[in-house]
Each structure stands twice: as C-alpha cells, then as structure tokens.
Automatic annotation (TrEMBL):
PROSITE patterns: HELICASE_ATP_BIND_1. The keyword Repeat does not apply. This is DEAD/DEAH box helicase. GO terms for molecular function: ATP binding; helicase activity; hydrolase activity; nucleic acid binding. Residues 30-201 form the Helicase ATP-binding domain. Keywords: ATP-binding, Helicase, Hydrolase, Nucleotide-binding. It comes from Aquimarina algiphila. The keyword Nucleotide-binding applies. SUPFAM superfamilies: P-loop containing nucleoside triphosphate hydrolases (SSF52540).
Length: 203
C-alpha cells in the first residue's frame, strides 16, 4: 500500500479528501519514484498521474518549507494547466508550510524573479517562462531535488523541447519524473540527456 508509506501529513490529507485506495498506476509508480530514480510514467487519462505527481513532490520535500530556493519544479504546457495544478497543490499544502509558486509567460519575468526571491519550495512553470528565468538568473536551482513534467506530450513541439533541453543542461543533480499517456520516441530521447538510468512505469 503506497499511501501507508507516505509522510503522515500526506496520509492525513488523503483521509480528509476521502482518497483511501491507490489506483493501479499509483501502486506501481509511487514506490519507484520514492526510490529516487529518474522515471518515465505512462498511463491513460484518469489513472491518477496528477495526484501521484503532487504526492511524490510533497514526500520528497517532507511537507515542510526549507530555505528560499525552490526544491521542486513542475513543468506544464501552458498557463491554464499551470493554474489548474497550482489549485490542486493548494488542496494538499493548505495546512503545512510548503510554498507553491506559479509562473507563466504572461506574467512579467521581473515580477516572477522578485516573487521567487522571497522564498518558495515548489515552482510550477511553462518551459518558455522557466527558460527565461534561467537565462536571467532569476531562479536558484542549487537546492533542486525533483523535477516533474506533467502531461509531457507537449514537449514533442520543437519550442518546448528546445527550452527544456536548455533548462536541464544547467541542472547538475536532480531526480526527473516525466508523466505522459504514451511513450513518444521524442520523449524517449531524453534518456540520452537528463533521464539517465531511468525506469519505466507503464499501466
């Protein structure tokens, strides 16, 4: 039972939300992600990928704020998805000290830089916005522990793919977890770059 081995704060929140039993995908993926390996997670819509992303991020950060630099990054396709995921994270972080921040292209990069500088734990962003922050030294990645990509099919587009490759070149030591419905050949290519020695969980 993967939920039984999660942080007590997460278990309490799951109980409050009446989420008792993990989906088959969660049973398979959570222990592998918790092990610290780079993971390609592929499963159909509705299998619990987003909840898995949130739970494993919270687990990695031990449900508490530390320092000022982000320790988790979640990359998404666009502003709409960023806001959806931000709201989903808030359901789980409402009663702990974790600070979640959302950035996207429409929000001026200087605003993002100054707000991130104030101190965050989890950064949700789009590839273009994140890459711009990197180029302007707007985000400190020295404390990064986990980098997740939600619904990663959007990375098949050249602009998003190029932005991600640029971002990951600067990251030295970090766990990468990529979620998608199918394993596209272009996503598999990441194995030669930042997804070294990765494992695959497919349901």
């Amino acid at each position: 039972m993967p939920f039984k081995k999660l942080h007590s704060d997460i278990q309490e929140k799951l109980e409050y939300l009446d989420i008792i039993k993990p989906t088959p995908f969660q049973s398979s993926s959570i222990p592998v992600i918790k092990s610290g390996a780079n993971v390609f997670c592929t499963a159909s819509k509705g299998s619990g990928k987003t909840t898995t992303l949130i739970l494993t991020t919270l687990q990695k950060l031990k449900c508490e704020a530390v320092g000022n630099a982000p320790r988790a990054v979640v990359l998404v396709e666009n502003k709409e998805r960023a806001m959806e995921l931000y709201d989903a994270f808030l359901m789980y972080t409402k009663h702990n000290s974790l600070r979640v921040y959302v950035g996207y292209e429409q929000l001026h990069v200087d605003v993002q830089k100054s707000e991130i500088f104030m101190g965050i734990d989890i950064l949700i962003s789009t590839p273009k916005s994140m890459n711009k922050l990197f180029l302007l030294n707007g985000v400190n990645i020295s404390e990064l522990k986990i980098f997740s990509i939600d619904d990663a099919e959007f990375l098949i587009q050249n602009l998003a793919y190029t932005a991600l490759m640029s971002i990951t070149k600067s990251i030295k030591k970090c766990q990468f977890v990529l979620y998608s419905e199918q394993m596209h050949p272009k996503l598999k290519r990441f194995e030669s770059f930042f997804m070294e020695y990765s494992k695959i969980v497919s349901i």
